[in-house]
Specification:
The complex is a heterodimer of chains A (about 150) and B (about 500). Chain A is an all-alpha fold and about 150 residues long. Chain A folds into two domains: about 5-60; about 75-140, no CATH class. Helices cover about 75% and strands about 0% of the residues of chain A. Chain A has helices at about 5-30, 35-40, 40-60, 75-110, 120-140. The longest helix of chain B is centred in the first third of the chain and has 35 residues, at about 110-140. With about 500 residues, chain B is an all-alpha fold. In chain B, helix 11 (about 205-220) runs antiparallel to helix 19. Chain B has 23 helices and two strands. Classes of the chains: A mainly alpha (about 150), B mainly alpha (about 500). The interface between A and B is large, with 63 and 57 residues.
Chain lengths: ~150, ~500
């Protein structure tokens, strides 16, 4: 059996994930109700998605030549810290609030992106985070999670 | 209502007899521009926030103020779409297709000028059509039922195939996955689907945060290693003369503007889906008719013109439905309906028959606003275009944070930021593995409505397909759908036959 290229394997994993997602969605909808009103769109849709994923999967697997897509491995690797930081920022919002959470996210991002001057990192993050938090908390009709700025929840 | 010259003259008189209503147009337009230009802030949000102010205005002033916010916001949304690949609203999705590549090539001045030109031309053309055809449009809208809506949505979904990027199969998969995710939450039958037990998903996936995540955040993650949005130092200038030349160059595309505006005003009049679909239809039609369809998506100015002409005109379409039928087509017109109520006015056939002068005055005022938008846009664009001079290490976290604030603003809970985060991861994966992000977003936008309309059609028709044959508008949409899928091939076949003969 031929050895799969790394990007081909990743491609197959994504297709499998979409196949499973569609299968799970059909199962979940069917469990809720098998009435035609509940499945009129979902049933044909999910079946088509699974079929298309299967076709693409087999097509990918049978492809003899290596996938000729330019893989920018550097870009993928360098994106990962930024993604992790962003995920951490969003998840921490209930505890850190939009003011402190945004300040920490900006400061950490600037640091890992190569900004050397500490005064710039701290000054910009502080001004942007607290300025935006004040603006949005004043504009929005509902309270925002804020740690230091008064008026949040 | 055909053009009533007497009422038209009375409407004009109403507008010029007192200058005070015009004083609130400029602030309204600046509010709209600002809200449109900030990712995550919506035009409807701006209108809702400033709605209480209209209590202190007479009805005419209130309408001028709200339509000014609407007009300013319509163009304002194109600024983040071009400079940051963030379509602040669903009606600016196709502006990103060519606007953002133009910005990355250092043609941001031109792209913004073109967007302004197309928006202004679209507003003028759209309201001209409205002036002449308001009666016809409102009668046509009344004939649109679930079958027609289903066909329209299917037509929208066929666009997915042509937005497929490098792999059309993956484009279709992405579109259908989007459609599937669009049905998450309570179904029309009262069942919950795919909510994972989370209350925040009962109303479905928050679409705008999801859209921001898929378009913007996924792109920003990819740009982590770049220094500036425009890599070439010399191209990174903000140049008013280039903005103006871009603005003027819009005149090179009269056909694109005309087609986009017609699509915008007619499709925009359909409640719910109008403005989301109009810009895509216009874009796809322009691409399909182009001699160089392969240049679309790589920075073709015609793509920006097509999208902006349609989305600014769909405002006129939705206003037609509101004025003539009292039905709001979306969030912004819903706020306008609230202003109607606050002034004890009910939109509908009686309103346009008995207060035709007011209706004409509102339409004429929008012509004036289009010209004001030229001035204000040319003042604002040079300020906002400076975004290209901001180093990416500052721009990326700032835009991400702003999107998080905006997503919270849209949902009023942390469900917005979490949706933004999850869909930014999905968008990043899709981009990396060549799945079409626009296709997925279109599916997401239309999923819930497609489900609903299919159920209504099933209920009305009793499951009989022959029902469709009795609906001429549905059949027209079906014909258009078939033509948009196979029209090009059919035309080529006919040409070959003609050459042989």
């Amino acid at each position: 059996m031929k050895k799969l290229a790394r990007n081909q394997l990743a491609d197959l994993l994504v297709l499998s994930a979409l196949f499973c997602l569609s299968g799970w969605y059909l199962w979940d909808s069917w469990s809720a109700s098998s009435h035609i009103y509940n499945l009129i769109l979902v049933l044909p849709l999910t079946v088509i998605v699974m079929l298309l994923c299967a076709v693409a999967f087999v097509g990918d697997l049978l492809r003899t030549e290596a996938v000729n897509r330019p893989v920018d491995r550097d870009s993928a690797t360098s994106s990962l810290p930024a993604i992790a930081l962003f995920v951490g920022y969003v998840i921490s919002l209930p505890w850190l609030g939009f003011d402190v959470g945004t300040f920490l996210f900006l400061a950490a991002f600037l640091k890992i992106a190569g900004e050397q001057k500490w005064q710039w990192i701290l000054g910009y993050s502080l001004a942007f985070a607290f300025g935006s938090a004040l603006f949005f908390s004043a504009m929005l009709p509902y309270p925002m999670p804020l740690l230091l700025i008064p008026g949040g929840n | 209502m055909l053009l009533d010259l007497h009422a038209l003259a009375a409407g004009f008189q109403l507008l010029i007899s007192d200058f005070t209503p015009w004083l609130i147009v400029i602030p309204g337009m600046i509010i709209g521009l600002t809200f449109g230009a900030i990712p995550g802030l919506q035009i409807s949000m701006a209108m809702a926030i400033f709605l209480p102010l209209t209590l202190y205005m007479d009805f005419m002033q209130a309408m001028l103020f709200l339509t000014a916010i609407f007009t300013g916001g319509g163009f304002g949304g194109s600024i983040p779409a071009i400079l940051m690949n963030i379509p602040g609203t669903s009606s600016a999705i196709s502006t990103t297709f060519d606007g953002y590549p133009m910005a990355r090539q250092g043609r941001h001045n031109e792209a913004l000028g073109i967007a302004l030109g197309a928006s202004c031309a679209g507003v003028i053309f759209g309201y001209l059509v409205l002036l002449l055809l308001i009666g016809v449009i409102s009668e046509a809208v009344l004939k649109i039922g679930p079958a027609e809506m289903s066909m329209l949505i299917l037509w929208g979904i066929t666009l997915i195939a042509s937005l497929g990027g490098n792999s059309s199969l993956k484009g279709v998969i992405a579109g259908l996955v989007g459609l599937m995710l669009g049905t998450v939450g309570f179904s029309e039958a009262g069942n919950t689907r795919g909510t994972l037990g989370l209350d925040s998903l009962l109303d479905g996936v928050p679409v705008i945060p999801a859209m921001m995540g898929m378009f913007a955040a996924s792109e920003l993650f990819r740009l982590v290693n770049t220094r500036y949005l425009v890599e070439d130092d010399r191209a990174r200038q903000v140049n008013l003369s280039r903005i103006v030349s871009g603005f003027i160059s819009t005149l090179r595309f009269p056909g694109v503007i005309g087609r986009g505006s017609m699509i915008g005003v007619l499709v925009g009049a359909i409640p719910g889906v109008g403005s989301s679909i109009a810009n895509l239809l216009s874009y796809v039609e322009t691409k399909r008719r182009s001699r160089h369809p392969e240049s679309f998506g790589t920075g073709n100015p015609a793509g920006v013109v097509a999208s902006e002409a349609a989305n600014s005109t769909s405002e006129a379409g939705s206003l037609a439905t509101l004025l003539a039928l009292g039905i709001p087509g979306g969030g912004a017109t819903a706020v306008m309906l609230a202003a109607f109520t606050m002034h004890n006015i009910t939109g509908g056939p009686v309103f346009i028959r008995e207060q035709a002068d007011v209706v004409y005055a509102i339409i004429l005022a929008n012509f004036g606003q289009a010209f004001l938008l030229i001035g204000l846009g040319l003042l604002f664009i040079p300020l906002l275009a400076n975004v290209v001079k901001v180093p990416m290490r500052y721009l990326i976290p700032s835009v991400l944070a702003l999107s998080v604030f905006g997503a919270y603003g849209l949902t009023g809970s942390l469900a917005g930021p979490v949706t933004l985060m999850l869909f930014s991861l999905l968008g990043w994966l899709f981009k990396r593995f060549d799945y079409s992000i626009p296709a997925c977003v279109i599916g997401l936008l239309l999923g819930g409505m497609a489900d609903e309309m299919m159920i209504y059609t099933y209920q009305i028709s009793g499951g009989q397909f022959s029902y469709l044959l009795q609906r001429p508008i549905a059949m027209t949409f079906l014909l258009l759908l078939v033509l948009s899928l196979f029209g090009g091939r059919l035309l080529a076949l006919l040409r070959r036959l003609a050459v042989r003969q």
